[in-house]
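Can't paste images in this forum, so I'm doing it all in text. The chain is below; anyone willing to post the predicted structure tokens underneath?
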Amino acid sequence: MREMAEVAAVVAAGVDAIGLIFVDQSPRYIDPERAREIVASLPPFVDAVGVFVDQEVAAVNEIVRYCGLTKVQLHGTESPTYCTEISCRVMKAFQVRPSLTTEDLVPYAGVVSGFLFDTFHEKIAGGTGQIFDWRLLEKLSPPRPVVLAGGLTPDNVGEAIRQAHPFAVDFNSGVEVKPGRKDLDKVRAAIAQVAAADAAWLRLSADS
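Text version of the structure:
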């Protein structure tokens, strides 16, 4: 996110976290100065998540400190050791393809707070706007909580939750009018669909 008014609107709609992308090549890039102002505006219990790709640990930690980030999301080839050197909680992102195995995840189990699963793309680390086969997560049995990403929209997020049962979902291009600018009606519709899927899951759990 990059616009203060949009941040206020999505927070009012009920999001648990906002994403701030610190990858120079991304069309959603935000400079640390603006990010710091946005983070300062957040109410309690809304996380500020910084997104990074294979950047120097010292540079990441400096942005975490300067902006007041509460979590980082790592979308590159960062190692478990790298994750331990980050000064806040870490989510490690993996692009899902058939060759991804549980063994790829296990080394990170003790050093990250969760795994984010996104759609595989040869040239793009995230924000592809495409979904993947959510059934592939079944065989992975991730050892930490799952955040599901990749082409999620108000139209498909309910089915994604029913199939994958993630801890959380991450919206990006599926609720935008253009990179870095949110369609607030889509955000509200997506949150309503998540709430409906959660309620249905609770009812099913209570009946079983």
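Helices lie at 4-13, 32-41, 57-67, 80-84, 102-105, 136-140, 157-164, 184-207. The first strand starts at residue 17 and ends at 21.
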